[in-house]
TrEMBL record:
Domain of life: Bacteria
One GO cellular component term noted in the UniProt record for this chain: plasma membrane
Name the UniProt record assigns to this protein: Sorbitol phosphotransferase enzyme II C-terminus
Keyword Manganese listed: no
InterPro entries registered for this protein in UniProt: PTS_EIIBC_GUT_C, PTS_sorb_EIIBC
Keyword terms: Membrane, Transferase, Transmembrane, Transmembrane helix
Transmembrane portions of the chain: 28-50, 62-81, 87-108, 115-134, 154-176
Domain Sorbitol phosphotransferase enzyme II C-terminal: 84-176
Single GO BP term: phosphoenolpyruvate-dependent sugar phosphotransferase system
Length: 177
């Protein structure tokens, strides 16, 4: 009886360990084939923008927008324009790059730290806009649903953007002050 128990227990432990090892292999493979190349791409884009001097010009323009509440509202509205949002959104490369520039401006003191949260909400508007058609297709939506759904979500993001930035501004008055 005890030999069968030990055999059953070792079989269960072997399956659990095998499952974890396989999950680890798949995780490493996924990281090496998708996540790391994307991180290298974003780092290269940020490096090119910062090294070419274009980053400084963008940062100067962003300092004017991100340095005050009205500018943040305008930045949120512009980045959520339904036509621009799917163009700016793929891979969130542009919002990541702008996030690095805004972070640099906050670190250098050109933008007050309490505006970090509203700046985040202002620049994140295009993120995910490229996934709307994919998401609708994954749910096996009818073509008519996608034709109506994609513009509906983009316009909703456009309408909600100032509300999100405004809420972040309201909360930000209690941060770092």
């Amino acid at each position: 009886m005890s030999q069968n128990f030990v055999l059953s227990l070792s079989s269960v432990i072997g399956r659990v360990v095998s499952t974890f090892v396989q999950a680890g292999r798949e995780s490493v493979k996924l990281m090496l084939s998708t996540v790391l190349p994307f991180m290298v791409f974003v780092s290269a884009i940020v490096g090119i923008i910062m090294g070419s001097g274009l980053g400084q010009r963008i940062a100067d323009g962003l300092a004017a927008l991100a340095g005050n509440p009205w500018g943040l509202l305008a930045l949120g509205m512009v980045s959520a324009i339904p036509v621009l949002s799917p163009i700016l959104g793929p891979g969130a490369v542009i919002p990541q790059t702008i996030g690095v520039l805004v972070g640099t401006l906050i670190a250098s003191g050109k933008i007050p730290p309490h505006l970090a949260l509203p700046a985040l909400f202002a620049i994140h508007q295009p993120v995910g806009a490229d996934f709307i058609p994919v998401g609708l297709s994954l749910t096996e939506a009818e073509p008519e649903t996608a034709e109506v759904g994609v513009p509906a979500v983009l316009y909703a993001k456009f309408l909600v953007a100032p509300i999100e930035v405004g809420a972040a501004l309201a909360v930000s008055f209690f941060i770092y002050q």
